[in-house]
């Protein structure tokens, strides 16, 4: 997160979730839904 002076602060909102693989594979991935992040750190291509 960035405050009003663009100073970074660490936070964790728990937005990642486990995605179970199709077919019973034991491989696990993480995923987020939608665009998330702080504008000051997000790449321009996200918008």
Automatic annotation (TrEMBL):
Which key words tag this protein in UniProt?
Kinase, Transferase
**Domain of life of the native organism:** Eukaryota
MF-aspect GO terms = ATP binding; protein kinase activity
Where in the numbering of this chain does the Protein kinase domain appear? 1-47
Q: What is this protein called?
A: Kinase-like protein
């Amino acid at each position: 997160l960035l405050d009003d002076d663009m100073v970074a602060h660490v936070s964790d909102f728990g937005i990642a979730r486990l995605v179970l693989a199709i077919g019973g594979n034991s491989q696990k991935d993480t995923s987020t839904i939608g665009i998330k992040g702080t504008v000051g750190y997000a790449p321009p291509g996200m918008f």
